[in-house]
Design goal:
The complex is a heterodimer. Helices cover 20% and strands 34% of the residues of chain A. By secondary structure, chain A is an alpha+beta fold. Chain A has two domains: 1-231, Gyrase A, domain 2 (2-Layer Sandwich); 276-351, Elongation Factor Tu (Ef-tu), domain 3 (Beta Barrel), CATH 2.40.30.110. In chain A, strand 1 and strand 2 (11-16) form a beta hairpin. The longest helix of chain A has 14 residues, at 197-210. Chain B is globular and about 40 Å long. The longest helix of chain B is centred in the C-terminal third of the chain and has 16 residues, at 117-132. Chain B has a single domain (8-119), classed as RNA polymerase II/Efflux pump adaptor protein, barrel-sandwich hybrid domain (OB fold (Dihydrolipoamide Acetyltransferase, E2P), Beta Barrel). Chain B is of the alpha+beta class. Classes of the chains: A alpha+beta, B alpha+beta. The interface between A and B is medium-sized, with 19 and 13 residues.
């Protein structure tokens, strides 16, 4: 498609497409509909094998959220943690059946995640399988995503609420998983189709065709990043990593210590008691300039206090925004800070997050 | 886009059009295309001194920061003020309305080492072959 490609975690991925460019693609998702090839993401299946309850117990052991709360047909955001309470990866867990779970993980951490899962569930009555090569994942995102997908499937999308899923025929393919999930902050769907090149290409083209009258654009990694940043969604290696814990990253609501022990729970309980040393905040530039990843953050006295995890121009908000780790004492909204941008310290202010929230219907 | 024959070009994808002892400087169509959507431009004010081959500002796209290198030595006589509010002009008209600075040359000999349009086109064609290989 003539896309500008870049190496992303070992995959050849488009940053943007000639038909759009980052800004046009970002705005398409916010106001109409966009299509992402996210087949680089990984998939792990965990099924019961032997004693009933084995699959759930295995998932509960490795995941911080409470999988017992998942209904069949429901998904949730969670993370795999190291014993220190820091991140192996974030992921979405889908409960496909009574004792059947689909874990969708990041491309860059696929191998690490699979090894981690395999090594940590072997004591449980379950069968874990790296299913990444089974699926091509496409994301259709935006206020007109449902309208677009409806043309291609017999599945009734209306009753599927946010973070729930169904299966149906899509583009003539049977039993395709259709999940109301995404990484953009908009309504949208992620569909999982058979991964052979011919099928993937067919579905890609049919979605673009179906979305034509809505003004669909294919979207690359560039827009993917600016969209998730405006919506304050974490990116592994930036807001979350193996040196950052759950409380620092502000992901408390997805971490259910009360469900019982899981890998990382003891360290997290201790960290909670000890108190936060740093916390993730949203920043908006006041002076002219764009804060970028890893730029240093200073307080008004000129003391270095933290760093930027992700920063960019925000195409929809038309502001320059960033996420950064700072001490809790500097995390209140309206706090003034300085960001060092190529030798100059420019003013920024702590603002509420997410920077963008989609309008309620 | 054809590269104007009245311009001279650098390996870092800047162009300069000289009239008398004043040159107008910008970045090329190839450069803006590689950058993607331009969202921010940082340029020095009139009076600032430029040195051939040295960085004198930045052009930022959504995802990248790119330094701009001066083709010549001299003093800036004018900076394009329109770019502060409309940085996207660089994508739309990189060889015309989105000129960056006008400079009074202190050493016209600097021009001798720059490429003409035909050489620059060949240079860019090579670059494009490399990236699509």
């Amino acid at each position: 498609m003539g896309a500008r490609m870049v190496n992303f975690g070992g995959w050849d991925m488009p940053v943007e497409y000639p038909s759009g460019g980052i800004i046009a693609e970002h705005l398409a998702v916010r106001t109409r509909v966009g299509l992402f090839d996210v087949s680089h993401m990984g998939d792990i299946r965990i099924e019961r094998s032997g004693t009933p309850g084995g699959a759930l117990a295995a998932v509960q052991h490795i995941s911080m959220n409470d999988a017992a709360k998942l209904s069949i047909g429901q998904a949730h955001y969670s993370a795999l943690l190291y014993p220190q309470g820091t991140f192996v990866d974030d992921l979405i867990i889908h409960r496909l059946a009574e004792e059947s779970y689909l874990l969708v993980i990041n491309a860059g951490t696929r191998e690490k995640d699979w090894n981690w899962v395999r090594d940590n569930v072997h004591g449980f009555a379950c069968a874990a399988r790296d299913a990444s090569n089974d699926y091509t994942q496409l994301a259709i995102q935006g206020p007109r995503a449902a309208e677009t997908l409806r043309k291609l499937t017999d599945a009734d999308l209306t009753p599927i609420r946010n973070y729930w899923f169904t299966t149906g025929t899509v583009c003539g393919l049977r039993d395709v998983l259709i999940a109301r999930t995404g990484y953009t902050g908009e309504d949208g769907f992620e569909i999982y189709v058979p991964s052979d090149a011919a099928t993937s290409e067919m579905v890609w083209n049919r979605v673009l065709e179906a979305g034509k009258e809505c003004g669909i654009l294919p979207c690359g990694l560039g827009a993917r990043n600016t969209l998730r940043l405006e919506s304050k969604m974490a990116l592994y290696g930036h807001e979350i990593s193996d040196t950052i814990n759950v409380w620092e990253a502000g992901l408390d609501r997805f971490c259910k210590l009360e469900k019982g022990d899981f890998i990382g729970s003891a360290a997290l309980a201790a960290a909670k008691a000890a108190g936060l040393r740093r916390t993730l905040v949203g920043l908006e530039m006041i002076d002219r300039g764009i804060a970028r990843d890893d730029y240093k953050v200073f307080d008004e006295t000129g003391t270095e206090v933290g760093y930027v995890t992700s920063g960019s121009a925000a195409p929809f908000l038309k502001k320059n925004i960033a996420l950064a780790y700072v001490p809790p004492s500097l995390s209140t909204v309206s706090t003034n800070l300085l960001i060092e941008i190529r030798g100059q310290r420019l003013r920024a202010q702590v603002v509420p997050t997410p920077f963008y929230k989609r309008p309620k219907k | 886009m054809a590269y104007p024959t009245t311009f001279r070009y650098t390996k870092e994808h800047e162009w300069i059009e000289v009239k008398g002892d004043t040159g107008t400087v910008g970045i090329t169509d190839y450069a803006q295309h590689e950058l993607g959507d331009v969202v921010f431009v940082e340029l020095p004010k009139a009076g600032a001194k430029l040195k051939a081959g040295q960085s004198f500002g930045t052009v930022e796209s959504v995802k990248a920061v790119s330094e701009i290198y001066s083709p010549v030595s001299g003093d800036i006589v004018e900076t394009n003020g329109a770019l502060a509010n409309e940085p996207e002009k660089i994508n739309q008209d990189p060889h015309g309305a989105a000129w960056l600075v006008k400079v009074k040359l202190s050493n016209p000999g600097d021009l001798a080492s720059l490429m003409d349009a035909a050489s620059y086109e060949a240079y860019v064609a090579e670059k494009q072959k490399e990236t699509s290989a």
